[in-house]
Design goal:
Layout lengths: L24 H7 L18 E2 L32 E2 H15 L18 H17 L5 H14 L3 H5 L3 H8 L6 H16 L8 H4 L7 H12 L8 H10 L9 H14 L10 H6 L1 H4 L6 H15 L18 H10 L31 H5 L16 E13 L2 H6 L5 E6 L10 E2 L2 E3 L9 H15 L15 H4 L4 E7 L3 E4 L3 E13 L20 E2 L1 H4 L16 E3 L5 E5 L10 H14 L28 H10 L18 H11 L2 E6 L10 E2 L5 E6 L10
Parallel strand pairs: 1-2, 3-9
Antiparallel strand pairs: 3-4, 3-6, 4-5, 4-12, 6-11, 7-9, 8-9, 10-11, 13-15, 14-15
Length: 703
Amino acid sequence: MPPRKKAAAAPARPLPPPNTTHPCASQLAAAVSPSSLPTRPHSPSYHAFLTSPFYPAPSSPPPAKKRKRAPAAPTLPPALDGALDAAVVQRKLLRWFDGVRESRGMPWRKDVDLAEMDDEERSQRAYEVWVSEIMLQQTQVATVIPYWLRWMAKFPTVKALAAADIEDVNSVWQGLGYYSRAKRLLDGARTVVNEHDGLLPSTAEGLLSIDGIGPYSAGAISSIAFGQRSAMVDGNVIRVLSRLTALHAPDKAKSTTGFIWALADVLVPPQPERRKKAKEEEEEEGEDDVGGKNKPGAWNQGLMELGATVCTPKAPKCDECPLSDECLAYAEARYVAHRPKAPAATSSPSEPDIEDLCTLCAPLPYESASEARAHGVEVFPMAKEKTKKRDEDSVVCVVEWVESEEKHIEGDEGRKVLLVKRPEKGLLAGLYEFPAVDLPPSSSLPPPQARTKLLDALLSSLLDLPRGTLSPSTTTSPSSASTAPRILSRTPLPPVTQVYSHLNRTYHPERLVLCSASPPALRPAPASDASSPPRKRKRKAAAPDDDADDDDDVHTEPLVQSLAGRATWVPAAEVPTANIGGAVAKVWGGRRAVVAGRGGGDAEGKGHSKGGKGKGKGGVEKGQGSLMGFFARKETAAVETGRSGKKALTGGQARAKEDASDEDDEVIVVDETETGIRAQGVVDGGKKAYKKRRIAPASDEED
């Protein structure tokens, strides 16, 4: 079946004629001249065509949190002669927001009269806004709404949240991603209860003393919940203000941050004083009624709503924007669109002196005249410098315990799985995972045999296992032979890839099934060693067995691994509902698929967090499912491990098969007498295993 053709994009609507009433209309000819459009020479006042009662006095910098010395207060450029009153922009945006306030059905968005509320009611309102703003960080509104409702039902007040533990918090947050946000909410709630008598401060400065609240959240809470004239700047606000003022500057530059925060601060409207006379209210009803009872909060929410629904990164709806007449980026686009392609040979428009040029903006990214002729609002704000995500690997072991071989064959009833709690800080803080070792980013993926040794060393630090349990070649003492756990099977699982905000991590799992009268005892946490950082150990120090130090010279960098004292045995049926991340859910889904003979992930490994789409990593080729299913059906053949001297699937053959499924290599086992091929490894019975490398075609894509 031929591939579907993509539908042709709708032709862009023609732009209106140039706006001759814009305060910067007289500067457009010089700023967007065809000969100098990439550099766009303009004066600093080009961006300062709005004025308000809070301008041009130096405005405060973005709120600083826990800094010894606050940075110097940034100043806005001198206001342009004939600058537009900011009240015009405020009324337009507030009137527009009044019409769309309820369009997306956000349960935390309420139009309340703060003057009629007491301190506890305003603090409760602040708590609702706080939770919503933290959840909305890097998460879409449609995704957040059900989580917010579930959260407020579980923790209706800040005191209820402060009394909870991290397990309850993570269980409600599970699936929303970026789990450190939930931990910060819990820490902040405890700070509010312990240091502020359970009431959130009303000012941005006071809110900054709460754990987990930064400048943006402080501005949002103080303006929306308390009616304070506080600025709040997020990605949507940066985009709206950059296009409104045609600012094309590096996003990480301090001068850019200072300008955006200063502009956002002077544009926030004040909360009008309550009128004492009804007559005055009637006379001013048409003006004061715009924006509801809380104008600062409505203005900040309106800016965010405008950036999220109209002033979008791609294909902005400029013809629907309430600020299209004031938007300088739109004015530039309209001017360029209606400028003759071949202007007459006349004197070029006068450009400002080089000493008076704007020092904030960077050149526009136009390399040809045709690109410059398509100048539009999407060029603002300046594109962020893309940083490539690093690729990392982890080795994982799904450790299962059953009481007998019959229980292992029958199914998951009575089966327990080993989970380890991650540290309370860092990636996936406080969640549970299968025992894992995160390999250093700079290292290459170790071969299967080395990965197995890493996991053996890790499991020996987590479980109280008799010597030789995980190394069949080492005999156990006669006294412990009867009680030592036996390995029923040890098979590879399909690798999975999880995409995080800053890295792509590929997990290389294997499944280990132990059989004994009771689950192996868990080792307690070792005495803290202040000289070494937490969760970091070197390979050589982590290998307790004599035969585990063969490859100690391969990786000498510190390895991050699961820690003793944080492990627990969980019934297999409870693993999907435990506080686990998306990667653990995918590994468990792959394990269930292997047991069922499918050999790939199932629906249970999806939807626990954002991402999970790796390029070629973690996928299962056709035919691999049947191979993995064959391993699962042959698990009972590995029961001989621990009874005889044979290694069965725990020795070189299992690792050779793991290599075949994990590394995309074809493993060939031949007799020792065969010659002409370079030996790659030895398996049981005196035979040698060789790998025939599959060469994959080069990809046309480059990310």
